[in-house]
Amino acid sequence: MRRLTIFLAALLVTSPAFAAEIRYPIFDAHVHYSEPAWAQNPPADIVRKFDELGVIRALVSSTPDDGTLRLANFAPDRFAPELRPYHADVNSGNWTTNQAVPEYLAERLSVRKYHGIGEFHMQVPRQVDTPGIKAAIKLALEHKIVLHVHSGAPEVAALFAAEPRLRILWAHAGMNEDAVTVGQLMDQHQNLWADLSFRAWDVLVRDKLSPAWREVFRRHSDRFMIGSDTFVTARWDEYADIIGEHRRWLALLPEDLARAIAYRNAVRLFGDGGRAELKD
Known about the structure:
Structural class: alpha/beta
Strand order of the largest sheet: 4-5-6-7-10
Shape: globular
Number of helices: 13
Largest sheet: 5 strands, parallel
Strand content: 5-15%
CATH architecture: Alpha-Beta Barrel
Number of strands: 10
Radius of gyration: 19 Å
CATH class: Alpha Beta
Number of domains: 1
CATH topology: TIM Barrel
Distance between the termini: 43 Å
């Protein structure tokens, strides 16, 4: 019995998931702190949760923007704010054609530093010609910030066709796009990055790393990031499990690649907030 206990303890300590958890800080590049979450999850509780899970910094956007500012003002070293177009009656379904959106984005970007515009939804390529997306493209270039886009591959291609100088963070790596498609788009566009929110169980298949995703990570080791997408309050309750899912597949990567995806790539785009843990 004693030998079995020692064996099980050693197995736990040397397991990839355990090793990854204690070795790699996490930069969560897809966080929302929208109004329904405020009462149940005050900023101090969010930071405490991050501390417990080794999440050192996060890219945050919210509906409305007040949630983003609450977190960024509470702990500026922990939260890199990005500006979401959604507020009041402006939402994912109408923001591209709402005539007030260009002024809203321009005004907010004029008074404080944001690291990106988004996360926003783009549903069809032709929306590239709408007032909202035209304004987002123009302002992203002016302020030298990224667009954080929830879309499929055709929409990302349309954005780059409209403006090749854009820098795009692709939410969920396209959500439903396979690794080959993601890799091909990254081959074509050097300014395309992707967060992997909602993709952990595509990357990790029956406790093994998907060969297709492994190849894309190898080819574009500097362009992927971890993401949680706390788009509903329940995701904050599940946050430990979400981060744990990512740690399981990070543990199967070579250390340099795991560190790149866990935090280094996001730091290069969004800064380290002065966090010593992210300077290496």
